[in-house]
Sequence to fold (214 residues):
Amino acid sequence: MAVQRPLPGARVEHVAAGSCASGFDHRPDGVVIVRPGAPRPGDFILTHGDDWTSRLIRFGQSLRYRGASAKYTYWNHTALVVDGDGSIVEALGTGVAKRSIHDYDATQYTVVRIDASDEDRSEAAAFALASVGADYGFVTIVSIAFGLVTGGKFAFAVDGQLICSGLVARSLERTTAIFKHDPARIMPAELAETYQVDPPAPGTPRGRPPHRVR
Fold:
């Protein structure tokens, strides 16, 4: 696991496939032990997927992020940590769901530990939890793709629908995060760029994306 410091007070940890984030230990009987240093509410993970929405996001990101910024397209999925036990909230094709960071133990993922007060962290987690059950923002995905292909600024969406990175960005708005674009329409690459999260070393195994069931 490689740890880097992209912003004052923030920490980034690349977690290898088949492992788990610092602060979590797996006992042989499958029980997870939480130790000091585990991800906290308001922290988030960046990872990758292989479903059609992930592929579309990766294509869209490649249109916007080029040159030195192209590295941020490594990720196409993200989720917010909502408690100290590793529960996460993420927007999937089936909708916004509460799951576990340990669902990603077989996958390479990156933990971004933000710099925020306990109150801000609680507000970020509360927003994400309140979004559980919302529909996935397919219309938002189409809007983003349309804008990237045409270069236009016209945007459209449906209230109450969220994409994975939009959910995380809107949650992080409850802290001190400031984004260049509408948080609801942000892509995973922009989260990585905002927090200056470099991808893991070239050739790092990506592992196996989790089976995503709502």
User: Anything to note?
Assistant: The longest helix spans residues 52-64. Helices lie at 52-64, 118-130, 138-150, 164-172, 188-194.
